[in-house]
Amino acid sequence: MDTTLVIMAAGLGSRFGTGIKQLAKMGEGNEIIMDYSIYDAIEAGFNKVVFIIRKDLEKDFKEAIGNRIEKHVKVEYVYQSLDDIPEGFSVPEGRTKPWGTGQAVLCTKGIVNEPFVVCNADDYYGKEAFKILHEYLVTRKENPDFHVMAMAGFILKNTLSEHGTVTRGICVANKAEHLTEVLETRNIEEKDGIVTGTYRGDPRTMNLDDLCSMNMWAAYPKFLNSLEEGFKEFLETCPTLDTKEFLLPSFINRLVHEGRAKVKVIPTHDKWIGVTYKEDMPLAQAQFKELIEKGVYPRNLWGD
Q1: How far apart (Å, rounded) are the C-alpha atoms in residues 186 and 208?
Q2: CATH match for 4-293 among 3.90.550.10, 3.40.640.10, 3.30.420.40, 3.20.20.140
Q3: pLDDT number for residue 281
Q4: What is the pLDDT of residue 12?
């Protein structure tokens, strides 16, 4: 079965260039975080990668990673832009803020016609996450009555930064391990084993072993049809100068609440690696070095 990895990289935006955290070198062969995600996805069984980027950054993006990856897997590009909206709508005058991750994934409609996983460009998820989501997609079928979906549930303690607070989607699931809600929780930090944060402005205490979302979702192509309808509804209710974004987790929350989606929360035990703060960079590079030394990855990832 064909399966696709969709990587949201349009958020690189004007920051794309020398010194930006998403393009920081992590491996001995100048690999960046995306390299490792793609390597793990191919190993898990994915046979196509779709990059969501900005059109004006296509040349730079291909030089940074795209041309290298094309030698190892089928690659396609889609382009997120402010004016890429459904017929009958127009960009509100004065709007400059992008439409968000929901619109980003919607850009793949017509290009992604197979089961897919979507993830961020600047997060390292680990091998287990790609394996479990790929297995989920190829062993299940679409249901005419609701969307069959899954998400990788990361253990909260494996996603924290030593250098400041983070924002995470804390997962609430039922006894069948299906998602009931994602709580977008900000200012998360751990002190003396106690994890605190704020949800909708109110203080909240969490457990180190709580599962959280790192925006890694598995779905089937018909999900994109619902996403398109959801984006239209968002635009209809979006005030002229509003800066709100059409966010993927919020839309999935809505589908769950309406009984239109069942999202399996599948735990993964790998440690997330990312660069939230500049002080995280040396630690992230050291973590990749350790993975290489343990033989998890070859020193020259692609052997080119």
Answers
A1: 15
A2: 3.90.550.10
A3: 82
A4: 61
Residues of the chain with pLDDT under 50: 13-18
- Residue 164: the pLDDT is 85
With b for 16 or more beta-carbon neighbours within 10 A and e for fewer, the 111-140 pattern comes to: ebeebbbbbbbbbbbbbbbbbbbbebbeee
Nearest to 274 by CA among 62, 19, 34, 50: 34
User: Which stretches of 9-160 are assigned E, i.e. beta strand?
Assistant: 48-53, 74-79, 116-120, 123-124, 147-155
What is residue 20's predicted lDDT score, i.e. its pLDDT?
60
> How far is it between the farthest Cα atoms of the chain?
55
CA distance 253 to 250: 5
Q: What is the pLDDT of residue 243?
A: 79
What residues have CB less than 8 Å from 157, skipping those under 6 apart? 190, 195, 208, 209
Provide φ and ψ at 199, rounded to 5°: -120, 115
What is the DSSP pairing of strand 179-191 with strand 273-274? unpaired
| pLDDT, tens digit, 9 for 90 and up, residues 149-180 | 999 999 999 999 887 899 999 999 998 899 99
In contact, 135 and 24? CB cutoff 8 Å: no
Bridge partners for 120 per DSSP: 8
Cα–Cα distance measured from residue 245 to residue 78, given in angstroms and rounded to the nearest whole number: 19
Distance from C-alpha of 300 to C-alpha of 184, rounded to nearest angstrom: 37
DSSP SS3 for 223: helix
Angle (deg, nearest 10), helices 248-257 and 223-236? 100
pLDDT the model gives residue 64: 85
Q: Alpha-carbon torsion 124, 126, 127, 128, what sign? A: negative
Q: Is 259 left (phi over 0), alpha (psi -120 to 50) or beta?
A: left
Say what the pLDDT of residue 274 is: 83
